[in-house]
Write a structure and sequence with these properties.
Length: 139
């Protein structure tokens, strides 16, 4: 099972090794896609979690017990490729490499598995051809 989650934890939990406990105690693999963790502030992570379904459920229960908020991310990046003029503005800000220009043709390519859903490309597109979709609703 491979699922993306947004995890928020209160400042007093920042010093606790939550992610390593999920890995060690619940046999989960965790890929941190984005992180904003500072002492004295609410920590925020976007992670991709790999593991058996029961291990994932147990790990999520652990987060609940620790008072750590999480939600499954059900968004995806939507790009209107047909109207794209291949200016490259979005690729210039895409640090994950999810958006890139094709080497053989001058067209935009999206690799959704690399996208961390940061939304920076949405603001960078001069034609506003990029959006996030969540459960069929544009957000």
């Amino acid at each position: 099972m491979n699922t993306r989650y947004s995890i928020s934890f209160p400042p007093e939990k920042i010093k606790k090794p939550i992610i390593s406990e999920l890995i060690r105690n619940f046999s989960l693999e965790i890929n941190i896609l984005n992180a904003d963790v500072s002492s004295g502030k609410t920590g925020k992570l976007v992670v991709e979690i790999f593991g058996k379904e029961q291990n994932l459920l147990n790990g999520l229960s652990f987060l609940n017990e620790e008072g750590i908020f999480y939600r499954q991310i059900q968004k995806e990046l939507i790009v209107n490729i047909n109207d794209c003029i291949a200016c490259g503005s979005c690729t210039g800000v895409c640090f994950s490499g999810a958006l890139k220009m094709s080497e053989t043709f001058n067209v935009l390519e999206l690799n959704s598995s690399l996208c961390v859903l940061c939304g920076i490309c949405i603001k960078a597109c001069p034609l506003q051809l990029i959006s996030l979709n969540s459960n069929g609703k544009i957000v």
